[in-house]
Task: structure prediction
Amino acid sequence: MKRLLLLCIAATIFACKGEPKDYVTLSGKITNPDESKTLKVFKGRDFEKIITLNEDGTFKDTLKVVAGDYNFQHGKQYGQIYLENDNTSSFETDYESFIDSMVFTGDASDLNNFSVQSFLISKTYFTEDLVGSSDMEKVEEAINDYKSAYDGLKVKYTDVDSSHVAIMDKNIDMTVQQLSKFMSSKQATLNAFPKGSASPAFDNYENYAGGKTSLSDLKGKYVYIDLWATWCGPCIIEIPALKKVEKQYEGKNIEFVSISVDEGRGYKGDADEAYKGWKKMVNDKELTGMQLIADDGFRSQFIQDYKVNGIPRFLLIDPNGNIVNADAPRPSSSALIDLFNELNI
Result:
């Protein structure tokens, strides 16, 4: 009788546990969803599945996967999640703050939360203001705080396999190296063009508004120069912030000058098309400030004199034609307004 009872209990436990499922169940909710109302889960060209969201942004579906890291897309936003068959995984987020508000639950939640939080701490410590400054002491302090915060995540999320930890360790080290390299380069630029030294000049650059303009024409005013190109994504991103700053300082003793280095790149090497593209973008985006185009792209003497090897690059020159900052803060950084306030512009 006892043996029969034990067999029944064992059979019941086995029945409850069941066979491992050959799929993962993925569910969650996206608040303020994109009008597409779809979530694409994919892994390169090897896997893709489209999940339809309900009207309230919730979703649930099953996917047959090979265990590993997968990407997902909703509207213009992207994320990453570890999926494995026989798991039940879920996440919730707000489309308007997609990565910042993302929280994972269910199986592999420690791994998924660890991954997204490890990415987010860089935004916390390596801010635009920090990158826009030249205070190396603050940079070093931010790097140490960043490393400490990452160590804290490893303590918090204990159920993360060693291979993922090793990958993230490498990513963290790479981020620190890239920031250090960037800031060292920035410092080298500032050392090469010390504050108060005479600025290199440009002469007779075509002005979108008509005629030619030289730096000497702007003497008596501060000159904030934006070196950019129509094909430069980071340059385009700065445009709204630049417009805002231009509006804020309208009527002040400062001239905002945007100098395009368009010369054919992005236009299959066709300089004429590049020139037309510059004029079209100035018109279409209703760019404000003074819009000039360099006489020979990156080979222009002014660009070479300032040792420009990447854009966007911002310069600030004083009313006497002397350098204030040869690698000035971007318009999107509050450090720029702090600098203007220091100068009583």
Remarks:
- The longest helix spans residues 162-192.
- Residues 4-15 have pLDDT under 50 and may be disordered.
- The CA atoms of residues 227 and 259 lie 5 Å apart.
- The two ends are 95 Å apart (CA to CA).
